[in-house]
Design goal:
With about 70 residues, the chain is an alpha+beta fold. Helices cover about 10% and strands about 20% of the residues.
Length: about 70
């Protein structure tokens, strides 16, 4: 994530993906872009590049039930 947009270590909900935590910053991630972790390279390749997902910032506390 870009920490100027989403604070590091904050939880977010990404529609169609679920809850994720902002745990990493990268030089290629600037502005309103998110690099979503996947368990395997194959899974990431299947997922590909997506646009238009709604992202809801939750906050630094882990949501209950996650």
């Amino acid at each position: 994530v870009d920490p100027k947009v989403i604070p590091l270590n904050w939880w977010m909900y990404i529609e169609g993906i679920g809850f994720r935590r902002a745990e990493d910053i990268g030089s290629a991630i600037k502005g309103k872009k998110i690099d979503v972790y996947m368990d395997s390279k194959n899974q990431a390749m299947k997922f590909g590049v997506k646009k238009g997902y709604k992202v809801y910032l939750i906050g630094p506390e882990k949501p209950s039930g996650v």
